[in-house]
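Q: Focus on the chain.
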Amino acid sequence: LHKFYMSNHDYVIIDSKFSKEQNLLLYNQVCKNKMFSEKEHLKNNSHEKSESSIFGRRTDTNFHKQQINEVDELISWIETSLIEASKNFSLNSITKQPSNQFDPNDFEIRQCWGATYKGHEWLMEHNHFPWTLSFVYYVSMPKGASGLMMGDDEIEMYEGDCIFFLGSQYHGVRPSHTMNDTRCVIAGNILYVPRI
């Protein structure tokens, strides 16, 4: 793991070191598998309760189960990184040692989707509770793209970064009026399933 650090906002960012070519292949797969805009989906499924947050286009939430080589490679890397990232969420504030009260191998990615956003599209503040953890991998972050908002703080993200955070953490993205290209992410929700 090349870049690995923890913030006081309960998130971990890891640099994947995926090449530009790998990210381009991921971008193409997200674009190829996009199903609908969140706005269209909510309009056609009014029975679903939502505070409508995504005004971009996204894939279905089983993107990690489509047997797409590029996505499988990314998910494998995320699962490996998750073991180390999860330890950082359990650090004792005094000893700085991780808790031994959980098995970091018991986390499972249960939902995953790709999404694209143009400059005027945004992500309203929301959380993913009751999921244990969530992640966002940045496939494409064009110049001028807004970072991830957590509270009042904007976290600058770069292509190839993956951020892990608590499922209860509120987050969002502001419109990027200076961004000319499309921002693309692959995100997901993680559940802790202890094997007893």
